[in-house]
Specification:
Helix content is about 15%, strand content about 30%. Helix 1 runs parallel beside helix 5 and helix 3 packs parallel to helix 5. It has a six-stranded mixed sheet with strand order 7-4-6-5-9-8, with no helix packed on it. Strands 16-13-17-21-20-18 form a six-stranded mixed sheet, sandwiched between helices. Strands 19, 22, 23, 24, 25 and 26 form a six-stranded mixed sheet that branches. The chain is elongated. It is an alpha+beta fold.
Length: about 400
C-alpha cells in the first residue's frame, strides 16, 4: 500500500496526451488545445466607438458651447464612409468604426440635437470613448496558448480571433464496467431478491464525461470469470481507458484484476492509504490504462474524483494536477482526529464555510448527493472545529 501523493506521482507518469486532431470550433467546447490559437485579424479591426454618441474632431469642441453639423451615421457593421471635417460630426453607435477625421466620441447623454445640428454645451470629461485598432490583439498574435481548455470564455476569444478550426488533443475514450452478481438495473432491484440497484457506473460515467472523456460504453457484468475476461478484452480493444468498479477486495468473487490477467495486466499501483477508497488501483494492459475503483458508491466517487479526474486531464492534454485544485476554506462544523490514512470527508457549503455531511459511510448515496466538496485531512491531523482552515476540492 502506498501513500496518496506517491500514487498521484505514478499516475502522472502515465497520464500523457493521446493524439492530435483538427476540429471545427463549434465542436471544440471543453477540448484542450494542442496548438496555440493565432489571431487572423486585428481586434478591433479599426478604431471603434465604445459608446453611443457623436464622433467629432477635438479642435471643434475645444471651446464650448459648440454647434456641429451632423453629416452621417456610423453603425456596427455599416460604417460611415465619409470624412469628418471642420465644423462637422457623425452620429455613431457602440461598436461602429470611427469615421476618418474624427478623434473623439462624445456620449449622447450630454449632446442636444437640433435637426441636423449637434449642440455640445457641457463639460466633455477626459474619456475619448474609442477602442484603438488592435488594442485587444493584433493579427498573428497568440490569443490562446497550447494546453488551454476551451471553456466558454476561451471559446469567445478563439472565435473573436476569426478562427474556424482549432488543433486539439483527442478526447480519451472510456468504457465503464460495473461488476457484481448482486447488481440489478435501476427499476428492477425491488423485485429481484438479494439485488441492489447498480448505481456506481452512472456516477463514474458522468464524472468521466464532466472531465473531458468520451464515454463509449457502460456495462453491468456478473461475477463470471469467462464473461468478465471477454468483456475486458473487448473493452481494451475499443477504449483508451477502462474503468472497472467493484471486485477489488479479497473475496472469492473479486475478479476486477484477474479479468485483465489474460491481457497481461501490469499494475502501476495497488491499494492507496486513503479513506475511503483504499482498494483503488491502476494498471496497464494491451497498451491501455485500467483504473479499478471500489464498489461502494461513496468510495467509488471519491476515488474517481481523486484519480479518474487527473488521469483524464493528462490524457486530454492538461497537467493531471489541473484537476486537483485544492483551495483553503474555513470549516463550519466539527471533524474528528485523522487516523493513519489520509482521509477525505464529504462536505457541503454552508454559512461560514464547509460543513461535513452527516453520513460519512462509504456506501452512503443520499449523503453523497448532498456533498459539494471534499475536505482533505492529513494522517495524524488533530480534531478540528469551526473556523479552522481546511483543504477543499470541488466534488
Amino acid at each position: 500500500m502506498i501513500g496518496f501523493d506517491e500514487a498521484l506521482a505514478l499516475l502522472g507518469e502515465v497520464a500523457r496526451p493521446l493524439d492530435r486532431e483538427a476540429v471545427a470550433l463549434a465542436a471544440a467546447h471543453r477540448r484542450v488545445l494542442a496548438a496555440p490559437v493565432v489571431a487572423g485579424l486585428d481586434a478591433p479591426a479599426t478604431d471603434t466607438s465604445a459608446m453611443d454618441g457623436y464622433a467629432v474632431r477635438d479642435a471643434d469642441v475645444a471651446v464650448l458651447p459648440a454647434r456641429l453639423r451632423v453629416i452621417g451615421e456610423s453603425f456596427a457593421g455599416r460604417p460611415f464612409d465619409g470624412v469628418v471635417g471642420a465644423g462637422e460630426c457623425a452620429r455613431i453607435f457602440t461598436g461602429a468604426a470611427v469615421p476618418a477625421g474624427a478623434d473623439r466620441v462624445i456620449i449622447q447623454e450630454i449632446v442636444r440635437r437640433e435637426d441636423d445640428v449637434a449642440v455640445f454645451g457641457h463639460a466633455l470629461g477626459g474619456g475619448r470613448h474609442i477602442r484603438p485598432q488592435g488594442s485587444d490583439f493584433r493579427r498573428g498574435e497568440r490569443v490562446l496558448e497550447a494546453g488551454r481548455r476551451l471553456d466558454p470564455r476561451a471559446m469567445v476569444a478563439a472565435a473573436g480571433a476569426d478562427v474556424a478550426e482549432v488543433e486539439v488533443w483527442t478526447r480519451p475514450r472510456v468504457i465503464v464496467l460495473g461488476t457484481g452478481d448482486e447488481l440489478a438495473p435501476p427499476g428492477q432491484a425491488a423485485r429481484t431478491p438479494g439485488a441492489i440497484p447498480e448505481s456506481v457506473s452512472f456516477g463514474v460515467a458522468g464524472m468521466a464525461a464532466d472531465h473531458g472523456a468520451e464515454v463509449i460504453d457502460r456495462l453491468r457484468l456478473p461475477d463470471d470469470p469467462a464473461t468478465l475476461e471477454a468483456a475486458a478484452a473487448e473493452a481494451l480493444s475499443r477504449a483508451d481507458l477502462v474503468v472497472v468498479t467493484g471486485g477489488a477486495s479479497v473475496g472469492e468473487k473479486d475478479y476486477a484484476r484477474s479479468m485483465f490477467a489474460a491481457a497481461g495486466l501490469d499494475l502501476i499501483f495497488s491499494k492507496v492509504a486513503i479513506k475511503p477508497g483504499k482498494p483503488v488501483w491502476l494498471g496497464r494492459a494491451k497498451g491501455r490504462l485500467v483504473l479499478g475503483l471500489p464498489g461502494n458508491p461513496t468510495s467509488a466517487m471519491v476515488t474517481a474524483r481523486l484519480f479518474l479526474a487527473p488521469l483524464l486531464a493528462g490524457l486530454a492534454g492538461e497537467p493531471p494536477a489541473a484537476a486537483l485544485a485544492w483551495r483553503p476554506a474555513p470549516l463550519a462544523g466539527d471533524l474528528p482526529a485523522c487516523g493513519d490514512r489520509q482521509t477525505f470527508h464529504r462536505a457541503s457549503w454552508g454559512e461560514g464555510g464547509v460543513v461535513p455531511v452527516g453520513n460519512q459511510d462509504s456506501s452512503a448515496q443520499k449523503a453523497l448527493a448532498a456533498a459539494e466538496v471534499l475536505i482533505r485531512r492529513r494522517p495524524g491531523a488533530a480534531a478540528a472545529g469551526a473556523g479552522v482552515m481546511v483543504e477543499t476540492l470541488a466534488f
